[in-house]
Amino acid sequence: MGDVNRDTWLELADLPSPGKLPTELDPWGGTLELDPLVPPRGPGRLVPRPELLRRLDRMSPLTVVEALPGFGKSALGLAWAREHEALGGHVVWIGASAAVKDVAAFMRLLRRGLARSGVTELSGLVQGAGRFRRSSGWFDELAAAERPTVVIIDDAHLLADPVIAETFVDLVRRAPLLYAVVLAEPGHHFHRAADLGKLETNVLRGRDLAVRADEVQTFVAAWGHEIDARAARMLHGLTGGWLLPLRLVLDATPAASAEFATHVAGDFMVNTVLPGLGVAGTDTTAMRFAVPDRFDSELASVLVRLRGTPEQSAEETAGALERQGLLWRLPSDAGATAWEYPPLMRRALIEHFQRVAPDEARAAHGAVARHLAQVADDVAVGQAMRHGRAAEDWALLVGLWSKRGWSLPGIDPGSFEAAYSALPVTVQQQFPALAVPAALGDALRSSHDLDWTRRVDILFQHYARVGLDHLADARRIEDPRVLAELLTAAMVARRGEGRLAEAHRLSLEVSRVLDRARLSGEPQWRWKPQAAWYHLQSAITRLSAGELGGVVESVSTAHGLSPRTPVGASAAGLLSALHAVGGQRAQAERWLAAHETVDLADRWTATYATLPAQLTRSMLALDRLDLETSRVALQHAPVGPELGGLWPLVVLVHTRHALLGGDALSMLSVINHLHQVYAHQIDAADGVARQVIDRCTAEVMLATAEVNRFQSWVDRMDSIPAWLATPTVRLHLMTGNLRKAAELAVSGVWQREVQVRDRLMLIAIHALASHLLGRPEAAHESFRQTLSLSADTGDLEALLVFPTEVRHELLSETGSTLDAETTRLLDSVACPYPRCAELVALSEREREVLTQLQRHETAADLARTLTVSVNTIKKQLVSLYAKLEVHDRSAALVRAEGLGLLEQRVGRPTDRDR
């Protein structure tokens, strides 16, 4: 066992005193001799750490607790010693120091400690002729002890002579009830001694001693501070659970401060830890390993080779740093070896690296970025973005954006912001491909404290600004991928401005750019992320313009190009929403299932990517008259924000929910507000915003029995568009014009533009109108069709058209049945619209008189304006007042205003309005 003579080491205990003991100053300036056999006082309050005490309770012959300064090694040893003594065990405490220079001095200390603890007697020690004679009686006493004896060596790394460790380990190996606990910083000799002596060893390292995040508040309270759970997690993230820096930061942080005084932790690292580790010289290996958050053998090899051919393998180099206590080995079930630095250590090393070798530090960041960029893992990609920015490797950042596109901000928004925000103007000029990600990075940077809806809106605003800058820039972009990206941003900008025709032209231009690139031999895979985004935005542009024909095809293409990304998930959700709005349940459910196969967990963009799917869930729930499920789904689909062009669909679904829930009036105020906010989009004739606002306004008018207002609005239209066909038919049904309702319902069913959901409603209205008109054959046929189509689509709302008694009558007459659950649901939800409402029908001449009545007070003035006699005007006024049920001009104007007969224009413009 090294140079130790196994047969003679016992006599070393009989040699004179171990030498001069370490000293410190007393309060009066004198010196105090420290007794190495007296444990230090320790903290006033020891926080229980039962899981660590259990590790020591394992009672291995040798337990080594090794960690860098400040991890609480001595405090842990003290706590365990007190507990062990309380149970009747012997504990010998030895405080090591540089004064213990050799094995003789150490064995003398040990002998004294054993005697002081009552484990052995002093009788075996005989003095004579100025020296102690050899005696091994104390060992015999130790070997014969009936109770276990624990020897705790504190600061064992200060025992410079390796023979001390070898001798002591041999003693532990020979004495059956002797156990040793070594408290040391890395670099001690006890591991080697245990290997030589083949002694079982229990090892606790810094990672084991680090405080867990859920323990921080307990330690903070013991130190006289108070912080909440959020601050505790933040503090743990800053320090990694390193005890002394954690306490130093708390002590230095003023009570009213909103930020922690982390500089003291940095000072501790620079002034106390790093100088003793030998990492501040010209060898930057330890610093290079600090660049990544954590690394495996493969990445370690990349970092080692940065300085040429290494003398040691990466594993050997990492192992050496691990033995120094710098690196923590990470547990792995897969068997792969990985390491990381304690967070404070890593931060201190990186800062030192950047000071002493900035060029080499950038090179290390670049090497790490390129390595991580090849790993098919979202976490690795997020780290690659940060390292690419630290390396100022703009080409790598371009490559990451080209490969991942809009998935990058969702993968790791913090890393994306760190990588792409605040890019120098010169960099963006040199790399035009960075224009879009730079804008998105700046958007994230300016929206930290906002909810996801505002963040999305700000993101699209920055994105649109890039497109507008491109349109104003005369520079020619040669790279077709970059050109397609900038044109898509311009398309989104024009769409948001309501300039839908121009947006559509830009969409066609992007298609041509992509086609040219494909025909030129550009690899198809390079286009997938950006092409998927383009097709999705093109579809939303077509939808906004009311060109529904190519919408489904474009969205399907977007999903096919990038099915497992947030863009693909959003595309699948949009397809499901479009089919759900149209009443095509089977297709809606199929695309909803495709959407749900994409894992969007832990991504801030998940709420936006799932927005269309939430609309689908709400629509399908409303089909089943399940208002609660619909309400829950709509909590994630707020009304108001622009949401990248999807707001009209959100309004449409919210309106349906409000109508079935009996809350039409509150929805009317929302619609009126949106009419002001998005006037530039709504004013685009035949666009989807116009269609949705028109339809929702019409439905709310009818639900609140504003039939006169609706009739007046319809009368000002040259023709009834397809999206108002169903409300118009309902108007005639509610006002008792059954023949007109039945007639328009039949013609509406055959209009190509009418969706399945509206077709079902029209058939149901036709059945009810025919029944009320006494046309049983037509009523029965339409009722059977209503039941069949309702079963196919899962839409029960159409059956609310029938009053309960009429529904039962038609079921009996047609020999049809409804299951008990459907009957219960129909009986539990009221029809959103009144069964009847009074319509004030004015002639064309009466409407003209009413309009002029606003401007003129006397019959004579009216007669002159309308070029008729005063008597004619008086007769027309009598007829007008009678229909309005009033007796004078003022009351007539108030009544007409209340009925909506004086409104100038609501909703869709006509040729006369333009």
UniProtKB/TrEMBL annotation:
InterPro entries in the cross-refs: P-loop_NTPase, Sig_transdc_resp-reg_C-effctor, Tscrpt_reg_LuxR_C, WH-like_DNA-bd_sf
Residue ranges of every copy of the HTH luxR-type domain listed in the record: 835-900
SMART domains: HTH_LUXR (SM00421)
Superkingdom of the source species: Bacteria
Keywords: DNA-binding, Transcription, Transcription regulation
Protein name: HTH luxR-type domain-containing protein
Keyword Lipoprotein: no
Source organism (scientific name): Nocardioides endophyticus
UniProt keyword annotation of Cytoplasm present: no
Pfam families named in the record: GerE
